[in-house]
Design brief:
Blueprint (H helix, E strand, L loop, with lengths): L6 E5 L2 E7 L19 H21 L6 H13 L7 E7 L5 H11 L5 H9 L7 E7 H71 L6 H16 L1
Antiparallel strand pairs: 1-2, 3-4
Helix pairs in contact: 5-6
Length: about 230
């Protein structure tokens, strides 16, 4: 998998000094995706539109809004405002490298963001060939992004755990095979040592009995001593 890189710029209240952001894993400007466009920015805009429609339907039906719903309506309207000072630009990795196309899609999905803010984002982009600016509105947007990031990290952790288990299984298998072969070599070594001792015993008995040892037997004796020393 391709690791993500993300950099944010500015802060809540304007575009100031550069700071680190929480990047996405996605391609095509999407958070956590692999290819294609949309992702985090697209899903956020869809949720905003759905929430706005729900609040509008409640008002049209004459239902009074609760304080929480009033707050939500103000928050939604503020997020669509071009002068929203609680907007932050972060960057997602575009795996196919087509940042220009994805940037056009992202602009179309976020019409409330002025063009000069996109230009500012691209100007401060640490890697314009791979990173796509993604607008995040307010603390709720950051929280949503962190939740998506956490879910993706959880998937990676599970994958790494599965790989670790497989590696342990392979290591145990090879370790068991190696121990089996080592034990077999030990047994074979003991058997050869016993056979060598028997031959040396017979040669020594003949020598003690005063029987002459001819040339081949003497050579065999010398070889046996060398073999014993190696064993």
């Amino acid at each position: 998998g391709q690791s993500s890189s993300s950099t944010g710029f500015g802060g809540f209240g304007g575009f100031g000094q550069s700071s680190s952001g929480f990047g996405g894993f996605g391609g095509g400007g999407g958070f956590g995706g692999f290819g294609g466009g949309g992702g985090f920015g697209s899903s956020q805009q869809q949720q905003l539109r759905q929430q706005q429609q729900q609040l509008q339907q409640l008002q049209q039906m004459g239902h009074p809004l609760t304080p929480e719903q009033h707050y939500k309506a103000i928050d939604l309207a503020y997020q669509q405002c071009p002068n929203n000072s609680f907007r932050r630009m972060l960057y997602n990795v575009v795996q196919d490298g087509d940042v220009t196309r994805c940037l056009g899609l992202m602009k179309a999905q976020n019409p409330a963001i002025p063009e000069h803010l996109w230009d500012k984002a691209m100007l401060m982009n640490p890697d314009p060939s791979r990173l796509l600016p993604i607008p995040v509105n307010s603390f709720s947007g950051l929280h949503q992004r962190m939740d998506l990031q956490k879910s993706r990290l959880d998937v990676y952790k599970k994958t790494l755990e599965e790989i670790r288990k497989r590696v342990n299984t392979v290591e145990l298998k090879h370790e068991g095979t190696g121990l089996t072969r080592l034990e077999a070599l030990k047994q074979n070594h003991l058997l050869l040592q016993q056979q060598l001792l028997l031959i040396m015993q017979k040669v020594l008995v003949r020598h003690q009995q005063g029987q002459l040892i001819n040339g081949p037997e003497r050579e065999l004796q010398h070889r046996l001593f060398l073999m014993q020393r190696e064993l």
